[in-house]
Amino acid sequence: MYDVIVIGAGPAGATAALETSYGGLKTLLIDEQLEAGGQVWRARSKSIINAPKNNYSIAGDDLRSRVGAGLVNILFGVRVWQIEKANDHWTLGIQGCEEKQVKAKKLVIATGAQERVIPVPGWTLPGVFGLAGATALFKEHMIIPGRRTIVAGNGPLLFYVASEVLRLGGQVSAVVSLNSRKDWLGVLPGMLRNPSLIIQGLSWMFSLYKNRVPIYWQHAVKSIAGKSSVEGANICAVDKNWSLISQGEQYIKGESVCYGQGLMPAIEATRLAGADHHFDEKLGGWVPTLDKYGRTSVSGLYACGDNAGILGADAAPHRGGLTANAIFEDTGMSNRVDINQKAYDASIKFGLAATKLSIPRAGYESFISAETEVCRCEGISRAEIDYEIKNGSLSPDAIKSGTRCGMGPCGGRFCNESVSILTEYLTGKNRKEIGITSARPPLRPVCMDSVSNELNYNDLPIPGVSPL
Amino acid sequence: MTCTFDIAVIGGGIMGCGAALQLAGGGMNTVILEQGDIGGGASGVNAGTLSMQIKRVKLMPYAIKGHAEWESMGSSVGFKKTGGYTLAFNDREAELLNERMNMKREAGANITFIEPSKLENIEPHLTKKIVAASYCPDDGFANSSLTGQYYRNRIEEAGIHFFERYKVTGIRSTSEGYEINSGGETISARRILLACGGWMKTIAAMLGADLPIRARVNTVSVTERAPKFINSVIGHATGLLTMKQKDNGTLLIGGGWQGKGKPEDGRGNVSIDSLIPNLQLAQFVVPELSKIRIIRSWTGFESNVPDFYPLAGKLPNNDNVFILGCVRGGYTIGPYISKLMGDYILDKELELPLFDPSRKMEEGKLI
Ligand SMILES: Cc1cc2nc3c(=O)[nH]c(=O)nc-3n(C[C@H](O)[C@H](O)[C@H](O)COP(=O)(O)OP(=O)(O)OC[C@H]3O[C@@H](n4cnc5c(N)ncnc54)[C@H](O)[C@@H]3O)c2cc1C
């Protein structure tokens, strides 16, 4: 039995785990990746290990060396598929290692963010990458997604992705930004709280300018074109509400499209663990309901990092430290991690400003045409979902039941958001009223033989047989 | 809401919706009150097995009638008559199978026994460790995910009023009948039918009835799309495994393994301690499943009383409140027994008798 298990070894989770282990609590840090760092401080693959360092790789290497120092127990390359609580301790079903289950008194969930991708015609063509997915390719392998790339969507990630493509020797045919210049000016005061990131942002913009990359402000991809893979994209302008303006459509050539609508908190694990959640647009969507230290509504369960609300990499270590403090307090220990409140406040302001740019606006539903495949696992189109809603299915669970949307291997990770956007549009209900689908294990599909050891038939715990 | 309904049905599962259709057909102004979505309870999450072989002997006539109802509902509920095999893997189970299936056959089910060696040609992906097997050609399944959609369409067509997200929190009797509250809202009706599945005990208590109802938390899992492994419904002599493969390749694995949680607390949870043996048993029966992934496991509530027979009749000491629930294998039997219940409330002659909730209930024996 561990004192603490932390799921997710990004900057928030790894910080929490390091601090609780420094404090003397027997801590286990689990991550499905092979090394600590999470998405933002992702480790590089062997082939590019000697490439020039940058801020992210330096911070990540520092974190990895502390995690590697041996005080905190680690299980990397391991996936958690089940979380349950009994008799005041947590049991996790895990996959990818010798052990099948691990137990702890306290559980910290730091599963980070997930990409929000709202479907448009052609989004399932080979050559379309999520914006965050593309950054993972850059960081781990320094691979660019195709010769000429169209970078489209919203939020700060757009400009980072475009400048990385250029830096790695690719071409960017266009940056297509749903946000307007005015949107950016509006969040500038919050962004200024982090001058070093502003400088970084300016350097991204400068590289676009230097390479004469056209930037289409307040535009969006209407459809992605290509026979067997991406050949280009049709783009058009949007109004303030991000509704499609049909006139003046343009075609842009490119062999890949990096596309996304910002990040959402990855809340599957906190939901499976039974914590209360609420919808908070400012934090990027549905989030666990927390106190400022990251305590959830369930005792012994904590959340920190972007899964607790999208605030970004700079805020994450502070959030991890606060959660470690909550655990110390709840364990009756006097240890406390020093939190630099000023730096933390600044990172929150910056994070909120960035997230504000990423929240999709109501009009964006107009880009999901009737034939667009919303659920790619099950091949369900918008028209089928609209029909189900108009026919009286109002909750995400009812829509899922009636259409199979979200019943495939991805568990609705991508389509749930689109279904809610469509429900909002068709019923006028808000996201809180609409709610979310029930949380069910496994967190990710698990191979049947990986959850247990082999069965000795006679050892099977047969309960009483049903009555005649 | 000022309108007074002839009857309010509390619970929009297969029992409530089925009875409401019969009641409306008989001329009653009917309303269904459902705390979540129509068909969102056990009726929408169950394993969908429509098997004679797992029905209780005394309920067989109801299951046979139920089957006929399912057949007529057809593809709109994903109905498939595939036939089903029940398997035994040791002598004790073989004995159990033999004894039970013979009794069920006598009760009218079309059940035969089959040599395990013959099964090898029919279901080649099953383990070779089968000791005994029985067969029923009438067995099959329906897709419980479609229950909500199906009944929502039918009750709408029948002009039945229904309120979803209407969680009944209090019931008050008046000179006219009953006032049924949900938070601040009130609906009034002359009669009530309680059809609240796993939640029955709490609602019956609102009317002063203390019934010995308990809830079970059954677990079901579904796999990713797999190559064709089985053609028919596969069961286990103990009832602890049911398995079927849909046209899209996914396999549904059930067997009544118990999860955790209570209906009053809102939801049940899968328990790793029962899920694992459930999945191990499935892999034992179809060894090739071991490399197939589980996509989702879930639970649903099902209620029962000590003698494991239905509650279907008048609430004790109450002429205008009726109750329908605690039906073992209730998905199979639901479409039929709910019709009977409607007839009973309408004071019509009954084709088969119901199950008086005021009876003395002795603890049913588990073997
Ligand atoms: C996991 C599982 C697997 C099963 N597998 C099979 C199978 O393979 N074959 C088979 O024949 N049977 C099976 N069963 C049994 C079968 O599903 C049930 O017997 C049947 O669905 C019961 O129907 P019902 O309408 O009584 O209950 P439900 O479908 O649960 O309906 C009751 C409804 O009442 C509502 N309700 C409760 N309280 C309130 C309130 N206060 N206010 C308003 N509404 C309320 C609930 O939300 C619910 O929708 C299974 C059951 C479970 C749980």
Which architecture of the largest domain in chain B per CATH?
2-Layer Sandwich
SS-based class of chain A: alpha/beta
End-to-end distance of chain A: 42 Å
Give the overall shape of chain A, derived from the CA principal axes: globular
What is the CATH superfamily of the largest domain in chain A?
Answer: FAD/NAD(P)-binding domain
| Largest sheet data of chain B | 8 strands, mixed
Radius of gyration of chain B from the CA trace?
Answer: 21 Å
CATH architecture of the largest domain in chain A: 3-Layer(bba) Sandwich
Let me know the largest β-sheet of chain A.
7 strands, mixed
- The total domain count of chain B is 2
Give the low-pLDDT segments of chain B.
none
What string, H for helix and E for strand, traces the elements of chain B in order?
Answer: EHEHEHEEHEHEEHEEEEHEEEEHEEEH
Q: State the secondary-structure class of chain B.
A: alpha+beta
What does this structure look like?
- The complex is a heterodimer of chains A (468) and B (367).
- Chain A is of the alpha/beta class.
- Chain A folds into 3 domains: 2-114 and 264-336, FAD/NAD(P)-binding domain (3-Layer(bba) Sandwich), CATH 3.50.50.60; 117-261, FAD/NAD(P)-binding domain (3-Layer(bba) Sandwich), CATH 3.50.50.60; 368-434, Arc Repressor Mutant, subunit A, CATH 1.10.10.1100.
- Chain A has helices spanning 11-22, 55-68, 131-141, 157-167, 181-191, 195-210, 268-272, 316-330, 341-358, 382-390, 396-403, 415-427, 431-434; strands at 2-7, 27-31, 73-76, 79-86, 89-95, 101-109, 113-115, 128-130, 148-153, 171-177, 215-217, 219-225, 232-237, 250-253, 256-260, 263-265, 277-280, 285-288, 301-303, 373-375, 380-381, 446-447.
- In chain A, strands 1, 2, 3, 4, 5, 6 and 19 form a 7-stranded mixed sheet that branches.
- Chain A is globular.
- Chain B has 367 residues and is an alpha+beta fold.
- The longest helix of chain B has 16 residues, at 91-106.
- The termini of chain B are far apart.
- The structure holds flavin-adenine dinucleotide.
- The site of flavin-adenine dinucleotide has 42 residues of chain B, from helix 1, helix 2, strand 13, strand 17 and helix 9.
